[in-house]
Amino acid sequence: xxxxxxxxxxxxxxxxxxxxxxxxxxxxxxxxxxxxxxxxxxxxxxxxxxxxxxxxxxxxxxxxxxxxxxxxxxxxxxxxxxxxxxxxxxxxxxxxxxxxxxxxxxxxxxxxxxxxxxxxxxxxxxxxxxxxxxxxxxxxxxxxxxxxxxxxxxxxxxxxxxxxxxxxxxxxxxxxxxxxxxxxxxxxxxxxxxxxxxxxxxxxxxxxxxxxxxxxxxxxxxxxxxxxxxxxxxxxxxxxxxxxxxxxxxxxxxxxxxxxxxxxxxxxxxxxxxxxxxxxxxxxxxxxxxxxxxxxxxxxxxxxxxxxxxxxxxxxxxxxxxxxxxxx
Length: 328
What we know:
By secondary structure, the chain is mainly alpha-helical. It has helices at 7-23, 31-37, 40-50, 57-87, 93-105, 123-145, 149-169, 178-196, 206-221, 235-257, 265-277, 279-288, 298-301, 306-327; strands spanning 224-226, 231-233.
């Protein structure tokens, strides 16, 4: 369990962040968007669990606040302040309270019944912050009680189902995505268990990749998953699809990692590694590029499969800007 950074993890994050951009550019609804959403965000949470180790609370809070909570607030303000200024609405006490409620709930969609508006894509950072705290508490409890992997899995599944029931059945969204985080800890536990049980994919076992791909295709077609809106249609099927899709991404990432020594494919590998390591910066840039009408640009609209070209241009702009910032 060394601390050496694994390139395949960065490659997987790079693939996932590109799919985030594509998923937000393709037509909605569409089969491609449905397929992407079935696993692209779970990849990040599963990998977060894979690299997670229980920490003392002071260390965990210090790192999580600086790396997740502060960027979350900055990103939320970067979206909502310009939106408010462009609206021309007057700044009142009620407006400030509404803005604080939006930031406090951190919901990717409007909160039903409370009139709290969605915070936008920044929800991911807040949800990861809350999930890390919840998962740390669970792992410390599991270790203290010496619970086996089966009991841990059952506990995380029950917590996930209860969390979704709060939002999906009762319509009660909790601050900082706590209800959604109950489901996310199940994904984190899966990644954590994969690492500690040595269950990582192996490029020497292509049949496992083919099998996971088939499971993902079938189960994703029979279910639906969109974490920002707490939509998990078919709890078991959607969760298996998310795990199988993420497993497939990990397998592909390990295969790409082996290309690093090849002349042209090596550049492709290094590009994906950069995207993975800069995924937070790319995500932040993408979170505020909604002001650009990618899907309705006159030049792109004249092309066949305009969504494809819009996705390529949008990805290139977001990744290119992240590269410039990283090199500055």
